[in-house]
């Protein structure tokens, strides 16, 4: 392995497996330890035969011994190693870090990478012996976040680490990554000095535009320009090269021809530049990233609009976008420069500014994941907005976004997602798992509010930035034009909102305020004759009704007056207005939309966020799982598993699988039926027969030996040499039928699908989907997320079905070799449920660690 990663201070190191060529560096590392550190490492102040010890660590003749090292340039900062205890899944672990680097997170980073590598190679636990006086090493182990047991024994403490990465561990890794990422992004979004390289004299050039924006935006730091053909540009002194600058700028913005970008990046790295923004497009990505990683820099772009921040201490607009950056509370990251300009212009028109803008372009390095971590800790950012055309690490994105969304709204414009290799839709589940279904599941579970256009985004931002969240989804509409009020009510229903039933007290109060011809039922029509004062009083009355969670007002000016001036905030309940024209703020606070449908959609986004915040976030603890038995099944299988192995796999995860007998002859099948002493189902096991009922491979209710033999002969005639056997099962009880399945995406991980089962699966496309792992709330969403859920689940044991969903998700998460799984049908009875038929496809799989701290290197 060879990975770049961030330390606590934001600096970049390389983590790689060490070999025989690294013996001199390892020796130098150990010999450079002070006496106290040598004693803590070796339990001796003068370790014997150090050369032999180090050579054994990296010897190819000791394959059970693995060593990782962390390098800054060519200097080895630390090493972590494990030795597998023979014939076990335990390994003894050790760590050594240069004394000067022990406060920068080198040891923790190495242990994270070592644990990830060990897990992928079948190691399940680390053990270590630590002196009781070595408190720093004990803290490193306990702070990792892994399940840890500590047993003191005199002067030595025995430590054992369970390598299975639970939530506590992933939270700890995420917190460390966030801290390091924020430190590194300070060079991008809070630089003390900037150099624009390729700042042209022509006002039409990109470099000139970037430099001019920095000057006119009154950047607070030191500003330099690099142009060998000019003395100054936009009033800024020019230098012929990066090497001639009076100091190493913290951030360099590259606006040079694509072919010279890697060379200029290399020059910046040698000069000590900490971060690059590459505006140029058409760049050799491999060479650029090579230079960036070699010198530990961070990179925005290439092919991007630039970056900006409105923080008063910085005031940086390093983009070529038109106009100034309006200060505000929205953090915006986008792959598209055009979308960035569009969102910024619309927010500016509404009086809503940006805290920071990052156009990631080709996102060779810095991505939306990095920016989410920055904005999580940025007090100036109150709302996060994203435009993503692709996901580099969607599973990490989901975890980070969920954490950020718990504190501040996160919105995303849905964009086209490319298919990373078309799956063979051999199962019902796989045919459901389109890119849009997967992406939407990711957004929904992570609390990301998804919209489909720039206007929808700014509409939602306007509502979220100015109004409180509603306590429910019951809406009242107040209008001075009855027809528009009806349109607003229709729009609310389309958005999944409910029209509130106004209480009698509310209706009587309204009757005293409005003409007799008015309607005091929801939607309330005041008629066109009321003035703004009366309209305001009507709004107060409706807002005081406990049945109302939010109010939408719809007003039009008439010859008799315009009640719009009476629209105002309510205490604790959102008010959104609609008025023909353009979207704006009324009285500086109430969002006003150009049409009722947009107001209803914006209110629905407020409700969506309130609902997500109210969701329980716990993950269920599942017992009765035999992970070793399950791993043994998938380890020996390839392709679609035979039915008896499917039953073994499901049973290992505590799933209620209906068993059976795999028979290879008619006589064997007859014996199986007689052993059950009941009617049986006979299922043909034939090559390329995936959908058995459709392919004539199922006989039900077979109850006597002669009928069994006839059915087997029928299968033999129908399938010939393709027939591999017959699976004999007792008939299942009658009940409603569900489909539960999994398909695994290379990047997104397992997608769990549920919906109508049995023959209805092929007739009706009625399914819900969610990404594993499933929280209890995610499982409930799946359970009730398809249209027929209410009918199917009525009178059944919902908890039993919920357990099936949670266990299927756990199976998929623990066994990446399970490429597809279809349970169809899952029969629901009044007292439980039963897996009657299931298919599992196993394929070779790597064990990538999506949560490992590392930067892109290729």
Automatic annotation (TrEMBL):
Keyword match ATP-binding: yes
One Pfam match? Succ_CoA_lig
> In the record, what terms sit under GO molecular function?
acetate-CoA ligase (ADP-forming) activity; acyltransferase activity, transferring groups other than amino-acyl groups; ATP binding
Regions crossing the membrane: none
Keywords annotated in UniProt:
ATP-binding, Ligase, Nucleotide-binding
Signal sequence range: none
InterPro entries in the record: Acyl-CoA_Synth/Transferase, Acyl_CoA_acyltransferase, ATP_grasp_subdomain_1, CoA-bd, GNAT_dom, Ligase_CoA_dom, NAD(P)-bd_dom_sf, Succ_CoA_lig_flav_dom
Positions of the N-acetyltransferase domain: 13-164
Protein's name in the database: Acyl-CoA synthetase (NDP forming)
């Amino acid at each position: 392995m060879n990975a770049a990663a961030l330390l606590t201070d934001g600096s970049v190191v390389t983590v790689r497996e060490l070999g025989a060529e690294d013996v001199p560096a390892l020796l130098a590392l150990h010999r450079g330890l002070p006496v106290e550190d040598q004693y803590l490492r070796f339990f001796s102040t003068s370790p014997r035969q150090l050369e032999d010890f180090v050579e054994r660590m990296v010897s190819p003749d000791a394959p059970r011994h693995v060593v990782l090292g962390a390098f800054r340039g060519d200097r080895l900062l630390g090493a972590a190693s494990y030795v597998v205890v023979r014939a076990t899944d335990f390994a003894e672990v050790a760590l050594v870090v240069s004394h000067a680097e022990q406060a920068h997170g080198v040891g923790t980073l190495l242990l994270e990478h070592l644990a990830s590598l060990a897990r992928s190679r079948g190691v399940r636990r680390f053990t270590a012996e630590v002196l009781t006086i070595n408190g720093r090493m004990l803290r490193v182990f306990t702070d990792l976040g892994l399940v840890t047991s500590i047993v003191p024994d005199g002067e030595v403490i025995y430590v054992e680490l369970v390598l299975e990465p639970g939530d506590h561990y992933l939270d700890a890794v995420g917190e460390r990554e966030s801290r390091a990422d924020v430190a590194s992004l300070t060079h991008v979004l809070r630089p003390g000095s900037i150099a624009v390289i390729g700042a042209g004299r022509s006002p039409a050039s990109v470099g000139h535009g970037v430099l001019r924006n920095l000057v006119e935006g009154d950047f607070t730091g030191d500003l330099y320009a690099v142009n060998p053909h000019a003395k100054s540009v936009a009033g800024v002194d020019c230098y012929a090269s990066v090497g001639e600058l009076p100091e190493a700028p913290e951030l360099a913005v590259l606006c040079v021809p694509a072919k010279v970008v890697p060379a200029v990046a290399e020059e910046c790295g040698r000069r000590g530049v900490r971060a690059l923004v590459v505006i140029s497009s058409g760049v050799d990505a491999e060479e650029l990233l090579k230079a960036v990683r070699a010198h530990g820099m961070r990179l925005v772009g290439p092919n991007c609009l630039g970056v900006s921040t409105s923080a008063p201490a910085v005031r940086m607009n390093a983009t070529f976008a038109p106009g100034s950056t309006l200060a505000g509370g929205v953090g915006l990251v986008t792959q598209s420069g055009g979308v960035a300009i569009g969102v910024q212009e619309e927010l500016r028109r509404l009086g809503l500014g940006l805290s920071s803008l990052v156009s990631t372009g080709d996102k060779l390095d810095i991505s939306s994941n990095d920016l989410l971590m920055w904005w999580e800790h940025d007090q100036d950012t109150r709302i996060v907005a994203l435009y993503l055309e692709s996901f580099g690490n969607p599973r990490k994105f989901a975890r980070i976004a969920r954490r950020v969304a718990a504190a501040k709204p996160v919105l995303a414009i849905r964009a086209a997602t490319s298919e990373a290799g078309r799956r063979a839709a051999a199962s019902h589940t796989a045919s459901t798992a389109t890119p849009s279904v997967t992406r939407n599941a990711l957004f929904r579970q992570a609390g990301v509010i998804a919209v489909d256009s720039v206007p929808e985004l700014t509409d939602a931002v306007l509502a979220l930035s100015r109004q409180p969240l509603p306590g429910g989804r019951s809406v009242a509409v107040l209008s001075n034009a009855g027809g528009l009020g009806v349109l607003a009510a229709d729009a609310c229903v389309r958005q999944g909102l409910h029209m509130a039933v106004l209480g009698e007290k509310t209706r009587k109060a309204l009757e005293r305020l409005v003409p007799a011809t008015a309607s005091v039922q929801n939607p309330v029509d005041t008629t066109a004759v009321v003035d703004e004062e009366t309209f305001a009083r009507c709004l107060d009355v409706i807002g005081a009704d406990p049945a109302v969670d939010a109010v939408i007002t719809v007003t039009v000016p008439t010859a008799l007056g315009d009640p719009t001036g009476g629209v105002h905030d309510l205490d604790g309940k959102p008010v959104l207005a609609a008025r023909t024209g353009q979207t704006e703020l009324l009285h500086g606070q109430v969002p006003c939309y150009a049409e009722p449908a947009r107001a209803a959609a914006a209110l629905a986004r407020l409700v969506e966020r309130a609902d997500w915040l109210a969701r329980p976030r716990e993950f269920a603890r599942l017992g009765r799982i035999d992970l070793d038995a399950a791993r043994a099944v998938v380890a020996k299988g390839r392709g679609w598993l035979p039915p008896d192995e499917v039953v073994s796999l499901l049973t290992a995860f505590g799933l209620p699988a209906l068993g059976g007998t795999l028979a290879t002859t008619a006589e064997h099948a007859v014996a199986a039926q007689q052993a059950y002493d009941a009617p049986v189902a006979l299922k043909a096991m034939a090559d390329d027969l995936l959908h058995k009922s459709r392919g004539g491979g199922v006989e039900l209710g077979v109850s006597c030996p002669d009928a069994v033999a006839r059915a087997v002969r029928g299968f033999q005639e129908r399938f010939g040499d393709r027939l591999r056997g017959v699976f004999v099962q007792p008939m299942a009880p009658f009940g409603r039928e569900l489909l539960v399945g999994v398909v695994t995406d290379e990047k997104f991980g397992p997608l769990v699908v549920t919906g109508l089962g049995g023959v209805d699966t092929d007739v009706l496309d009625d399914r819900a989907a969610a990404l594993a792992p499933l929280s209890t709330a995610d499982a409930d969403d799946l359970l009730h997320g398809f249209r027929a859920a209410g009918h199917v689940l009525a009178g059944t044991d919902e908890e039993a079905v919920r357990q099936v969903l949670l266990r299927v998700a756990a199976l998929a998460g623990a066994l990446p070799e399970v490429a597809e799984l279809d349970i169809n049908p899952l029969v629901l009875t009044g007292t439980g449920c039963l897996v009657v038929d299931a298919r599992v496809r196993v394929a070779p799989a790597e064990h990538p660690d999506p949560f490992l701290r590392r930067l892109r290197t290729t």
